[in-house]
Write a structure and sequence with these properties.
Length: 329
Amino acid sequence: MRRPLAFPSCVCALRICGGGARAPAGRLGAMENPTLLPGVGPDATLLFVHAHPDDETLVTGATMAAYAAAGARVVLLTCTRGELGEVIPPELGHLEVGRQLRLPQEAGMDDAGTGPVAPPADGTGLARERERELASALAALGVGEHLWLGQGLAAPASGEVVFRDSGMQWGTDGRAVAATTVLAGSLSREPLAGEAALVASAIRALRPDAVVTYSADGGYGHPDHVRTHQLTMAALNLAARDAGDAPGWDVPHVFAIVSDRPERPLEPGVPRISVAGNKAAKAAAMREHRTQVVVDGDRYALSDDVWRDISGVEEFVELAPPPSVCGVL
């Protein structure tokens, strides 16, 4: 595990301005007057905790790229491989679990894959594809450190484990809810305390200056996003305590991602923190997540075919680590 990068003298001129750290124009590539998180400078270590590959790019990619370009140590922890996600490209449609044909180009395929003798997709192929996509996306963001929950610094003492995508379905209010069937080994079905302990181990080892994850409702309700928030909050509490020879680490700054969904406005008086990050790097990373995202110039669409503008501005709120989480620890 590498240590925080030495900071070039030209970037030491970063100063706090308007609540965020501001860098000289030109130092960070295509960004104009980039702003960073308040109190978290370019010599910091940041840990981003996300549920599936592509989440890191869609909602925090510009911020991750800005910090990486500034010389900060940026680490991503991903909880699942998103093996139950939808697949956009027709030529990869056979990777989607339970695929239902919905595009004219897929007339020669059935739900099982590319022919009548192909076995039904079980998510293994999509998991491998999304692993590759994530590696390419992180390279585009300039992020060189990545962990899977259950592996590496976040592995249990008994040996590495894999947490599955829990899946989801859309509720009547337009928000994600739990799938009808959630398989054993899925992130949202495994014990929260055990998952939190794994993330706490990573936090003690990394000693981050800031941790970034979802808000309590996961942004749009996906069970894995909600669980990722829960396990991260619980891990912050655990990580502050010593564990054997590993000294505890009290993370100075914790940030939640602000959802752009209108049905979940922030409570009055909660200040938003805007980070003006690296839009070009974010767009490049989005292109790498081709099973999940289509990019056309400065706009993108997910599997819902709704086009949205790519933004280099991402919003957060600062949280205080809880003294306990629902009594589960």
